[in-house]
Amino acid sequence: MATDGRLARMLHVLVHMGLLGGKETSERIALMLSTNPVVVRRTLGALRDHGIVASEGGRGGGWKLIKSLDQVTVLDVQRALTKGPILHVPISRDHPSCPVEWASNRVLEQAHAAAESYLVRSYAATTLAQIAKDATVKASVTT
Amino acid sequence: MATDGRLARMLHVLVHMGLLGGKETSERIALMLSTNPVVVRRTLGALRDHGIVASEGGRGGGWKLIKSLDQVTVLDVQRALTKGPILHVPISRDHPSCPVEWASNRVLEQAHAAAESYLVRSYAATTLAQIAKDATVKASVTT
DNA sequence: AATAGTGTAACCGAAACGGTTACGCTGAGC
DNA sequence: GCTCAGCGTAACCGTTTCGGTTACACTATT
């Protein structure tokens, strides 16, 4: 299924990490996201497995970005969080041999495949650096 | 949220009803969908409230299409089943005043809005009659 | 009156996500 | 070498959503 709150939360925290530039503990990140450290470790763990962040154990440990903001796209984060399609295609599989079911499914599959491909292209075209830039612009305007 | 199995199932059953042309009981429809009559009434009830089918109680009652297949689009069925957007946009609302969260959300919102609008256009452009035609072509090829 | 239908409420079960607790492992600093 | 701050992970719970099921009221035809 689509990443539910995780993609947005990870974008948020990765951009912060990129802007701050240093190392952050799960504890501090949990505060940023209004959640708790275990959830942070679970989610960042997936990003570590995809080479986006690194973790260090022991005293003084924590998490850091191991790519620069312009080397990470939204799609990279999405792919790290969940395998498979972003959109969940709502198909029925009650009567695989029924041509009416087949035709109904095909319409839905094709529409969703096109929407999915659009989303993937959007995600791939957006880097964390662009989000960071938007955020600093927004912040300066607001201030 | 997106209609989970209901949209596909309703397309399936509406096309069958259109092709058969008569009245169907919840019981028979439940058999078509491998489910049970209560689920059928729940779901078809939403379509009735949107003027797509009509129901009659009492002996000899049942459900019938009150529009022809070419007057009903996939979007009509979707709208009858669930209000609001088809796609669920996965944004975070932990820190509404944080510009980084705002910028992350904005990227996701824009990408999903475009994908949603694509889906809506696809759904609106497809009538049940087209599904019926695809199904009969498929059936004749297979046969 | 009997019967074949819809209409609806109430409850259960499965799946997914997030929150929480608990405990093990690791490494820096004293 | 001990302590303690940190990650790693398993286990469990609560919530939500959808589908399945039972139960019962209502209605219209025969």
TrEMBL record, chains A, B:
Keywords: DNA-binding
Stored Gene3D superfamilies: Winged helix-like DNA-binding domain superfamily/Winged helix DNA-binding domain (1.10.10.10)
Domain of life: Bacteria
GO molecular-function term, one example from the UniProt record: DNA binding
Coiled-coil residue windows: none
SUPFAM superfamilies found in the cross-reference section: Winged helix' DNA-binding domain
Record carries keyword Membrane: no
PANTHER family per record: HTH-TYPE TRANSCRIPTIONAL REGULATOR YWGB-RELATED, WINGED HELIX-TURN-HELIX TRANSCRIPTIONAL REGULATOR, RRF2 FAMILY
Protein's recorded name: DNA-binding IscR family transcriptional regulator
Biological classification of the source: Bacteria, Pseudomonadati, Pseudomonadota, Alphaproteobacteria, Hyphomicrobiales
